[in-house]
Amino acid sequence: MQSEFILNKENKEELKQYLSEVIDIGLEFKLGEKFKEKNVSNEIKEQILRMPENSRSMEDIIQLVEKEIVPCCSNFSSTKFMGFPDSGNSIAAITGTVLSDLLQQNLINSSFCAPIATYIEIAVIKWLREIIGYQNISVNNVGDIGGIITYGGTVSNSIAMLLARENHRKYTMKTGVKNPDEYKVIIPKGIGHYSIKSSLMWIGCGENTIEVPTMNYKYDLDELEKTLLKNRGKVMCVVAYAGDSRSMTIDNLQEIYQLVKKIDDNIWLHADACHGFSLGFSEKLKSKISGIELFDSISTDPHKVLAVPYTVSALLVKNPKNLINIASTSDLIMQEDLAFGQITPFIGSKSWMSLKVWFTFQNMGREEIGKIIEKRCQMAQYLKQKLEQRKEYVILNDVDINSVMFMYVGDKENIELSIDEINDINKKIKDKMDTDGTYFLHQFSINDDNMKLGNKETILYPLRYMSGNDNITEKDIDDLLIYIDEIVRELEEKR
Ligand SMILES: Cc1ncc(COP(=O)(O)O)c(C=O)c1O
Fold it and tell me: Is the CATH number of domain 366-494 3.90.1150.170?
């Protein structure tokens, strides 16, 4: 007898009913107003952690999820969620996401696990390469593709560090790291994503990053030059950001390339463009990332910027053959020409993440995606203008992409509050927002690199707007400011 728990011809309609119910729940959720309805209670924690010994009906589970679990989810799709990307709301991408799970392809090999999926994945990598300006060659094997799809920017950055390591000391894959001190990686001070430092520890290079001072959240090129000269022969990689995680600043990519390669042509240049590659879709904005095509490798995160649900990232490599240097060989992967598993370190079985990106490209085309990216940037510019007109707020960054870091300071013409007081009041604004659960802005620590309030060593806790939701309008931004004003009024009254 067939199991009632497993899909078969008899229970197909039943499954369709459940799918339709959860799709309704998910869409209602996505179109909800608030960022968060409910906090996670101890009671619900206990309930969900308990081991289910016996079976339970799907009706029951769906009801529990709808009533108790969905309201505790953070709604990235709410127009009041304004601090972190991405809403993941492309109609095509959502469709592709559902389909990829139903199709159950495994991108580890191309013969029996993913025969056509492999070609879709190759297409997505090829298009992303075109967007950032890399040349494509015709593909006969994995050494011609020039990229891999991974689960996120952290994995993409980690694999880039492996490429840098192998480029610096050939055969480290075989011999291991002998003297970690000679595998240094240069990063910009205070703004780098943790994945670079961590991955170097994961791959045996130890804590060997060198932080170079920045100006306006970009490398201070004189300091970069000094650091390179001082550490000649020991630097395996320089990492630059096209949109760092905090200020979303785009570095001087062309100048960095010229400086680094002039000093040592063998240093690997990696661009973390998890956010910034998106500008390549827009004719108006793509010049902001010019020079990126000179870099040896580039991390890109469609799940941060292309209205695509979590997760999907792509590491692109200028010279496709370099990926062969870090390849694995096992007859479990299948030693076939197009088995991606050979060139995806740390990853074995891999879901068909590229399908949702392929759907999005097919549905919108490059031009429409470009318009979405432009609108996100325009929304950030709108907030910037509004804040500039107000005496109470100071903006800390140049607003290169879609992010605005700002702080309430009382009166910017005549700041009477100390740095501690400014930080304190901005943390309280954030606390109140989180308690209300209506709006979300991000908050983190960052150096005052532009010396807007103190000096370069001053640590600030700004509020950070970031637009990863294409439904956000100017009115939503006006309403956000009214909401913050109200919090500030209450806090000032208490002071
Ligand atoms: C610039 C940058 N690089 C890498 C990452 C890591 O990406 P993921 O969280 O997808 O692993 C992030 C995440 O915020 C990021 O902002």
Answer: yes
Q: Best substitution site from 304, 305, 313, 315 to test ligand 1's pocket, by max atoms within 8 Å of Cβ?
A: 304
CA-303 nearest atom, ligand 1: 10
For 75-127, the pLDDT digits (tens) are: 999 999 999 999 999 999 999 999 999 999 999 999 999 999 999 999 999 99
Same fold, 95-362 and 366-494: no
Ligand 1 pocket, residue 426 CB under 6 Å: no
313 CA to middle of ligand 1, Å? 9
d(CA 274, ligand 1 centre) in Å: 6
Residue 301, ligand 1, Cβ within 6 A: yes
Q: And the tokens for 225?
A: 């030059």
pLDDT of residue 270: 99
Instruction: Indicate if ligand 1 lies below 6 Å from the C-beta of 410.
Output: no
Mind listing the pLDDT tens digit for each residue in 344-356? Answer: 999 999 999 999 9
What are the distances in angstroms from CA 151 to CA 230, 303, 488?
36, 10, 40
pTM for the model: 0.97
Residue 244 CA, closest ligand 1 atom number: 1
Please list, in sequence order, all residues whose beta carbon lies within 8 angstroms of the beta carbon of residue 434, skipping any fewer than 6 positions away.
Answer: 440
Residues 6+ apart with CB under 8 A from 323: 142, 143, 145, 146, 148, 163, 317, 343
The upper half-sphere exposure of residue 367, i.e. CA atoms within 13 Å in the direction of its Cβ, equals 0
321 vs 143: CA distance, rounded Å: 5
The CA radius of gyration of the chain, in Å to the nearest whole number, is 24
Specify whether domain 95-362 bears CATH 3.40.640.10.
yes
Structural domain boundaries in the chain: 12-30+37-73, 95-362, 366-494
